[in-house]
Specification:
GO terms for molecular function: cystathionine gamma-synthase activity; pyridoxal phosphate binding. The protein is α/β, with parallel strands linked by helices. The chain is about 45% helix and about 10% strand. The protein is built from 23 helices and 14 strands. The strands form 3 sheets. It has a 7-stranded mixed β-sheet, with helices on both faces. A 5-stranded mixed β-sheet has the order 10-11-14-13-12. It has a two-stranded antiparallel ribbon with strand order 1-2. Helix 15 links the parallel strand 7 and strand 8. Helix 1 packs across helix 5 and helix 10 packs parallel to helix 17. The longest helix is centred in the N-terminal third of the chain and has 20 residues. The radius of gyration is 30 Å and the shape is globular.
């Protein structure tokens, strides 16, 4: 039965998924994918040709694998893969011929173990087609014959002269490479002279990274997105690319401290000055626009840590009248709660480390907007660096798949927590745009669909009392960052401003009893009980 069943069982898409080093790319059910064009005449001949290449093995079609018993599937994996691998790398005088024979025998053994009882065989035969395998065109035995040493074979076999393409995986492959090759100089010239599109160097682009960029562009309604190694990398790259030497920017009093440090200490070295205004002070913005040649208005909305909101539509209209660009850092809002570009902003920026990644396990930043503006930033990025590692890009992609679920939970829990804290006698005040007491509550309702997962508040007590409250909590981690699955809490006076004395901290509104609470996706009742017991402890 085994001898007569090879073609029937292994006709289409014969590639073993259990050995990632030995793979045939693509599905071959009646299609031609790129270089895969020659039809094999028999399964044994096909096995021999793949063994000769020292880089091919079978992939059983999914409907076949599902019908194999566990034992038969294990036999297929252990025999079909292990024997071919061992034979391919033997040191006898004819290694590839031995590999071919071993591979053919492996197919016999695997097929014999895999064929079910006679009553099931007909059903199996009907469920699997008889199309031939396709092999790469014009490669032949020369792929390995150019090498005299096993060391060279180990480096290049299965890769140098063509490899399979993974285009049927559900998840996006991680392309770990620092550079991309051209088959011949004519291809390189076509690329350089813009007759062809290709990757060239890892800092200039990566297939995995592009998927993350396209996802973010789709969420933001942007023409283009650049994703980089961190949120600060995105911010500084944007400022350096779009603000000319001697230019002027407008920003807001409440913002991430490292952004403020860059604006106040680094940009002046290039002759760039800044005006700082209250997020709601549109009169101050109008004065700044009239008195200065403003290149850019840059702010967070909501801001960090007081969650102030900027009227993005109004600010954009005012700035555009004076020829200034508008960039909104929407990290606290997420692309789900706020669409800054549709409100009129030219660019929207995120620390993707936070909600977009969402699992406290990756650093990344991104900036989205028109192709023209993002290209200017991208060109500088190609020079300066700060490329996102493709493994990190994969984590961003993975995190975004649950973004809407996480943000929905965090929006809901944060609003409930804000209301709970505002009503508690041991809390002096709460900063959350979803509360009517927030100064921009009505604005937030107009331009946001949810108010985010961060709640800031002041404990009724001094720094020691606040420390005792935080240390009494059992669930949240004491850590920087926010937006992840796990709840995180900190005192900004200690976490972010401890190098300043109390008087200096108060210039930025940072009191010793201020707490920033990033709500995770834990059950709200658990968080509620934990917060209440910690408040009872002070």
């Amino acid at each position: 039965m085994a001898g007569s069943s090879h073609a029937r069982l292994l006709g289409p898409a014969s590639e073993c998924r259990s050995c990632p080093d030995l793979a045939v790319a693509g599905r071959f059910r009646g299609h031609s994918y790129g270089r895969f064009t020659h039809e094999a005449k028999s399964v044994k001949a096909t096995v021999a040709s793949y063994a000769l290449s020292s880089s091919r093995i079978f992939k059983f079609p999914p409907n076949f694998v599902r019908q194999l018993s566990t034992k038969a599937r294990r036999n297929c994996s252990n025999i079909g893969v292990a024997q071919v691998v061992a034979a391919s790398w033997s040191n006898n005088s004819s290694p590839f011929q031995s590999a071919a024979a071993a591979a053919a025998n492996a197919v016999d053994a695997a097929a014999a173990a895999a064929v079910p009882a006679t009553s099931d065989a007909a059903a199996l035969e009907g469920s699997v087609g008889t199309e031939s395998l396709k092999v790469e065109e014009g490669l032949g035995d020369s792929r390995t014959s150019v090498f005299d040493c096993d060391g060279s074979v180990a480096i290049h076999a299965g890769e140098r002269f063509g490899r399979g393409r993974v285009d049927d995986a559900i998840t996006t492959p991680v392309v770990n490479t620092s550079a991309y090759f051209f088959k011949k100089t004519a291809d390189l010239l076509d690329f350089k002279e813009k007759r062809a599109v290709s990757f060239e160097y890892g800092r200039y682009g990566n297939p995995t990274t592009i998927v993350a960029e396209e996802k973010i562009s789709a969420l933001e309604g942007a023409e283009s997105t650049l994703i980089v190694a961190s949120g600060m990398c995105a911010s500084t790259m944007m400022l350096l690319a779009l603000v000319p030497a001697g230019g002027h920017i407008v920003t807001t009093t409440d913002c991430y401290r490292k952004t403020r440090i860059f604006i106040e200490t680094i940009l002046p070295k290039m002759g760039i000055t800044a005006t700082t205004i209250d997020p709601a002070d549109m009169n101050a913005l109008e004065v700044a626009l009239k008195e200065n040649n403003v290149s850019l208005f840059f702010t967070e909305s909501p801001t960090n840590p007081f969650l102030r909101c900027v009227d993005i539509k109004l600010v954009s209209e005012m700035c555009h009248q004076h020829g200034a660009l508008v960039c909104i850092d929407g990290t606290f809002a997420t692309p789900l709660n706020q669409k800054a570009l549709s409100l009129g902003a030219d660019l929207v920026l995120h620390s993707a480390t936070k909600y977009i990644g969402g699992h406290n396990d990756v650093l990344a930043g991104c900036v989205s907007g028109s192709l023209k503006l993002v290209s200017e930033i991208r060109n500088l990025h190609h020079v300066i660096g700060g490329a996102l590692n493709p493994n990190a890009a994969y984590l961003i992609i993975r995190g975004m798949k649950t973004l809407h679920l996480r943000v929905q939970q965090q929006n809901s829990s944060a609003l409930r927590m804000a209301k709970l804290l505002e009503a508690h006698p041991k809390i002096k005040c709460v900063y959350y745009p979803g509360l009517p007491s927030h100064p921009e509550h009505n604005l937030a309702k107009r331009q946001m669909t949810g108010f985010g997962g961060v709640v800031s508040f002041e404990v009724d007590g001094d720094i020691t009392t606040t420390i005792k409250f935080i240390d009494s909590l059992k669930i949240p981690y004491i850590a920087p960052s926010f937006g992840g699955c796990e709840s995180i809490i900190d005192q900004p006076a200690i976490m972010s401003y401890w190098d300043l004395n109390q008087t200096e901290r108060l210039k930025y509104g940072i009191k010793d009893n201020l707490v920033r609470f990033s709500i995770g996706i834990e059950d709200f009742e658990d968080l509620k009980a934990d917060v209440l017991q910690a408040l009872d402890a002070i």
